[in-house]
Amino acid sequence: MKKTVLLICIFFSYGIKAQNIVGAWESFSTSENGDKLKTVVIFSKDYQVLTTYNEATGEFIHTNGGSWTLEGNIMTEKIEFHTDNNELVGNKISFKVIITDNSIEIVDNDMKFDRIDDGEPGSLQGAWLMSGRIRDGITQLRDTSRPRKTMKILSGTRFQWIAYNTETKQFMGCGGGTYTTNNNTYTENIAFFSKDNSKVGLSLDFNYELINGKWHHSGNSSKGDPFYEIWSIRE
Known about the structure:
Blueprint (H helix, E strand, L loop, with lengths): L1 H6 L15 E8 L5 E8 L3 E8 L5 E12 L2 E9 L9 E4 L1 E3 L3 E4 L5 E6 L8 E10 L2 E4 L6 E7 L3 E8 L4 E13 L2 E9 L9 E9 L2 E7 L5 E8 L2
């Protein structure tokens, strides 16, 4: 399983513009004990994340991701986090696949990913970094260039957040699932949560607003604690 997950980190677009990869993709496999596993890949314009979890229970199994570029027929990812092997962090890995409008097939591998969405309707589609908080009316900004990052990647219907450190190669946690936006309400439906499997199945409503290009996100956390976060699109 670990070898397969590593192989599907990177993708090559054949005959299709790179931006058509943007969106969410899914694949299914079976674990050694017969459990059905779901793997979801979310591509933003420059960043991607891949996660495998137990579809029935939401048990988290693996995540990896980072930035990606396309040169000719080669997609290259610079790995920023990897839960199976943190020594891969900072390395570049290249891999080939054949991609159509609705599927990605891994070359020399029997895995196939089907498109979930193409980045629509996704009011918040893209890669974001937490860049600040507001506490007691005071704005506390965060330097997004530092190695300790909290990133959230959203397609048209899927989201995932990841906390990690590119310098220490430490992975701190992640969670994800589906999301919707309606007026000023952002709703997350949790499909997996690496630190606490009991959060799987929860639907959480938050207030959201885009102010000068920044995502202002407030409400109560999965623990019930109030918060106000500011997220900046990752360039």
